[in-house]
């Protein structure tokens, strides 16, 4: 038998850091070679950079990977709704300042759920900085807001306590958080219960549900910006990888297809899983990302 030695790619330990932005501690995970192509990972609701805990080491041998927590989420500061304006405009401003403090002048954007309205604001503001888009169950088209959004749209129309309580009782409980992770998956046993226990423990902190209600309300600021984001797609044509859990009730597959109307270079994958696709298909998504980035971003590098 002939023995062959396979050279292992180096894997960088994930560093856990904080940086001050607008007087707040913004926590972030960072790994990979400092001068490699950067991937900025933007998380969804009700989670944090915790959702990327496995994706980061899967990419960090070759890419500089950065995943911040928004204010009110994860390990970042959690000012009250009276101390901080919880809007998507403001979250995007925080992340914009965060990228500038870290010197991230070029990056690919991985956007999931809330990460989409944060990331698309960044992209529309700084199109020259965005090397590519990785879109995972994140919306930019009216077709993507279906049945799940009916009670949230009622809240947009009338911010009454009655409408708030419907959302509080149905979207901010441990049962709802577990449902987000398990609905639409192929195999329940593949989903780690630490996910919803971790997320819910942070959402159960005093004052956090009020933060989440403010963001539910302000999500109504996003659909009016869809035409602007779509114009950005058409004008700047960033390469895009779509890796979408097609069984997601929150952001169904109807929201994935329209990207192909406006973007010419789309690597499009509907995956047989749910909302948090990384939990069941993380290895697949990491491999698709590596192939996509090698073809669309690395080819332009002169390192």
What does it look like?
With 303 residues, this protein is α/β, with parallel strands linked by helices. The chain has a domain at 15-146 and 222-300: Rossmann fold. It is 38% helix and 17% strand. The protein is built from 11 helices and 8 strands. It has an 8-stranded mixed β-sheet, sandwiched between helices. α10 (259-262) links the parallel β7 (240-245) and β8 (266-271). The longest helix is centred in the C-terminal third of the chain and has 20 residues, at 277-296. The termini are far apart. Residues 1-8 have low confidence and may be disordered.
User: On the 0-100 scale, what is the average pLDDT?
Assistant: 95
Largest sheet: 8 strands, mixed
Q: How many alpha or pi helices?
A: 11
Radius of gyration: 19 Å
Identify the CATH homologous superfamily of one domain: Alpha/Beta hydrolase fold, catalytic domain
Secondary structure class reads alpha/beta
Spans of 5+ residues with little confidence (pLDDT < 50)?
1-8
Number-wise, the strands total 8
Strand content: 15-25%
CATH architecture of one domain: 3-Layer(aba) Sandwich
Order of helices and strands: EEEHEHEHEHHHHHHEHEH
Report the CATH topology name of one domain.
Rossmann fold
Termini gap: 38 Å
CATH class of one domain: Alpha Beta
**What sort of overall outline do the alpha carbons produce when their principal axes are compared?**
globular
Question: How much helical structure, as a percent, in the residues?
Answer: 25-40%
Cross-sheet strand order for the largest sheet: 1-2-4-3-5-6-7-8
